[in-house]
Specification:
This protein is mainly alpha-helical and 235 residues long. 58% of the residues lie in helices and 6% in strands. The longest helix has 18 residues.
Length: 235
């Protein structure tokens, strides 16, 4: 998920930047320290695929909102954005998340899993490359640990990453308690009650509105949606 590159880019480009500022920072200013123009162009393309890098894209604009406010949550915040935009990353989630903490990770097993979901879609070389990249992304997010030999670990959810996961679920159509049970919420890698606790903390910080009365849960995002986006979600 190119967490290092994203971090360096967002450190370099101000929140008020427009889309062209991100492209210029990567290709002309070489803020990521790439050796050639071709590598800079490829890096820009991959980052745009994962994160958009365009303030008019809701998921990227809100990523930057939480990125500024919750530094500890940045790995999961970045991962959630990439997860929302990358179908292969989403497709690998059941394989990773169903593994028990401490269980050894097998790249070959992930290759077999990916191939079983789309038989014949990928060559062996592509499967290997995809599995390596996916393992790297899940490691950067905290769901895997280790370098050569990886094992399942628990990601560390924070108020910002939790609020972002709920927001992404809201954009996908979930409401109320179901927001805490979406695939985005599952990526947080913690219990339902822990998600509630973190959401309540995010609400106290003014990032979202979270209300729970008995079994009834309401989550609102007044600080995160433009008026036009609010209209979209009401339709």
């Amino acid at each position: 998920m190119m967490l290092r590159e994203l971090t360096e880019l967002l450190n370099h480009v101000p929140v008020s930047a427009v889309a062209s500022d991100y492209a210029r920072a990567i290709e002309e200013e070489n803020c990521l320290g790439k050796r050639s123009g071709r590598t800079r162009a490829l890096t820009k393309r991959h980052l745009k695929d994962l994160y958009s890098l365009h303030p008019s894209t809701t998921v990227f604009r809100v990523l930057r909102y939480f990125w500024q406010r919750d530094p500890e949550g940045r790995p999961l915040i970045a991962f959630l954005c990439a997860y929302a935009r990358d179908s292969l990353l989403r497709g690998s989630a059941p394989f990773i998340l169903q593994s028990a903490e401490g269980q050894a990770f097998s790249r070959e097993a992930l290759e077999t899993y990916l191939d079983s979901k789309s038989p014949g879609r990928f060559s062996r070389a592509t499967l290997k490359s995809a599995a390596q990249n996916l393992a790297s992304s899940w490691t950067q997010a905290g769901h895997l640990a280790g370098c050569v030999k990886k094992t399942r670990s628990k990601a560390v959810a924070t108020p910002g990453s939790t609020a972002y996961a709920l927001f992404l679920g809201f954009l996908s159509g979930a409401r109320g308690e179901s927001l805490l049970r979406t695939d985005y919420a599952k990526v947080l890698d913690c219990s339902f009650e822990r998600v509630v606790e973190l959401a309540e903390t995010a609400s106290r910080k003014g990032w979202i509105v979270f209300k729970r009365v008995g079994n009834v849960i309401e989550v609102l995002f007044p600080a995160l949606l433009t008026e036009e986006e609010k209209e979209w979600t009401r339709e």
